[in-house]
Amino acid sequence: MLWALGGLDFWVIEAKSGAVSEVIHKQYANQLAGSMNWFRERYDTTARATPVMVHPARQLSSDATATPGMKVLTDEGLARLRSAILAFAAGLASDRWDNADSIDSQLQGQNLRAADLPRYVNSYRPARKG
Questions:
Q1: What residues form DSSP beta bridges with 9?
Q2: Residues 68-92, buried b or exposed e (16+ Cβ, 10 A)?
Q3: Which in 3, 24, 30, 57 has the greatest CB count within 10 A?
Q4: What is the 3-state secondary structure (H, E, C) of the chain?
Q5: Could you count the other beta carbons within 10 Å of the beta carbon of residue 54?
Q6: Residue 48: beta bridge partners?
Q7: For residue 11, is pLDDT > 90?
Q8: pLDDT digit string (tens) for 56-104?
């Protein structure tokens, strides 16, 4: 999945909604690396991408290698993001959904502007040694 955040900033997302493991396995880490390769093949160096893994765990398994700059959207972050999106929708329903200033105010109030999105993700944890 690719989210365009504006200003040539993107999130390249691998969503592992069925994952239940306490670690991010090699297969999932490799899929995100492949998605980042796809991005680099299609966009020039002026475009910036953050690799994001949607997974319940932040910990890499011992056989996995993180894509540089990888962030993880865990269940907790996903729940906070979902709550903000629902509040945004409710705000628009009770306000002016057809007015750019109203929409911007709702985005800002619910922390859903592009600059706010990093608050929902975490850094990954390297594999445990030994």
A1: 6, 48
A2: eebbbbbeebbeebeebeeebeebb
A3: 24
A4: CEEEEECCEEEEEEECCCCCCCCECHHHHHHHHHHHHHHHHHCCCCCEEEEEEECCCCEECCCCCCCCCCEEECHHHHHHHHHHHHHHHHHHHHCCCCCHHHHHHHHHHCCCCHHHHHHHCEECECCCCC
A5: 19
A6: 9
A7: yes
A8: 999 999 999 999 999 999 999 999 999 999 999 999 888 777 888 989 9
